[in-house]
Amino acid sequence: MGTLLLNPIAFSIGALEVHWYGLILGTGALMGLLFAIWEGKRFKIPQEFFMDLLLFGVPSAIVGARIYFVAFKWEDYKNNLWDVFKIWNGGIAIYGALIGAIICALIFVKKRGYTFWRIADICAPSLLVGQLIGRWGNFVNQEAYGGETTEAFLRDYLHLPSFIVNQMNVEGIFRHPTFLYESVWNFVGLLLLLILRRRKFLRAGELFCSYFIWYSIGRFFIEALRTDSLAFQGAAWLASFVNGLWAPMQWIGFEQGYLAPSYGNVRISQLLALLIVITAVLFIIVRRKTIPNMPVYLDPIVSTKATEIDIATLQMPAPAAKTAAEQDNGTTSAEEANTLNGPNSTEDKKE
């Protein structure tokens, strides 16, 4: 059976080829930015702050994602170093992107005088927006797909449209559209975060942790469907434990993607997902028990540097407004007279 492929190149400008992969990732980043700006307005954070954060954060995320991926695939790149820079062909790891973006954000947010956890909370839904859109870049590149399946499973069991089913026909074999599974999971997570962030019980930093918990749960189950997972050779009990946790997926008709025994028996993203979920839950519990009077999500957000500017502005004298009656009568209130004549005007009159 033939394979229907989408052209990964959107258009060309001379010798420059613009790939759909880059356009889709850019669209995801832009939509994430708009979400952050929209929520930032509630806390009176200027939109330029988020634009600058994106300007530094995206390159940091791409570098982190590529370093993470190449580090675990070094055998494939050590003799072809130029291929390390060909990110348009895919091969970036989302956890590496998060590491790069978080390191950048920690530095940037501190320099702007904000608390990291407050800004991270605002940006948490934006991360899901970027990811749910960005995964469609894998669809166009026909990569990051899952193990073998049947056309009937995709059409009749999952009721997927033809353009997805056809693209999942990879060299005559139908594959699980893991990009779609993760995109849908992230969309549901986005709705949950949008609801959660309006709850009064939510403390600072907990929406960001909730993002990691939700995403990592989905990634744990979806990752095992893939055939291109980064893996390592772990203890037999660890591999058995991970596979046991994944067993519910078999109950609903899914099978794990093939992973060569010589390559490894534990998928790195699955193990990392488990560790992230445990760490995030413990982090929330420990902070609630050890930090008194922790700010809640809905509390005002103030930059220490912005506060200095505001104080200077407040110290500048402002003309008092006249009441309508005073304007009609041409009179001046005592308070206004004191403001205009100075703080000693009352004593001057007495003298």
Automatic annotation (TrEMBL):
The chain crosses the membrane at residues 20-38, 50-72, 92-109, 178-196, 202-222, 234-254, 266-286. It is found in: Cell membrane. A 1,2-diacyl-sn-glycero-3-phospho-(1'-sn-glycerol) binds at R135. Residues 326-345 have a biased composition (Polar residues). It is a multi-pass membrane protein. One of its GO terms (cellular component) is plasma membrane. Its EC number is 2.5.1.145. HAMAP family: Lgt (MF_01147). GO terms for biological process: lipoprotein biosynthetic process. This is Phosphatidylglycerol--prolipoprotein diacylglyceryl transferase. InterPro entries: Lgt. It comes from Paenibacillus lutimineralis. It holds the Pfam family LGT. Pathway: Protein modification; lipoprotein biosynthesis (diacylglyceryl transfer). It comes from the Bacteria. Belongs to the Lgt family. GO terms for molecular function: phosphatidylglycerol-prolipoprotein diacylglyceryl transferase activity. Catalyzes the transfer of the diacylglyceryl group from phosphatidylglycerol to the sulfhydryl group of the N-terminal cysteine of a prolipoprotein, the first step in the formation of mature lipoproteins. Residues 320-351 are annotated as: Disordered.
